[in-house]
Amino acid sequence: MTTRTQERPASAASATMKAVRIHAHGGPQVLKYEDAPRPKPGAGEVLVRVHACGVNPIDWKIRAGHFKTGHAMPLVLGWDVSGTIEMLGPGPSSWGVGDHVYTRPSVGRNGGYAEYMVIHESELARKPTSLDHVRAAGIPLAGLTAWQALFDHGNLHAGQTVLIHAAAGGVGHFAVQLAKWKGAHVIATASGDNREFVMSLGAEHFVDYHHARFEDVARDVDLVIDTIGGETQLRSIDTLRMGGVLVSTLMEPPKERTALRGVWGVHFMAQTVPGQLIHLAHLVDTGVITPHIEAILPLSGARQAHEISERGHVRGKLVLRVAA
Question: What is the CATH number of domain 9-139+291-321?
Answer without folding.
Answer: 3.90.180.10
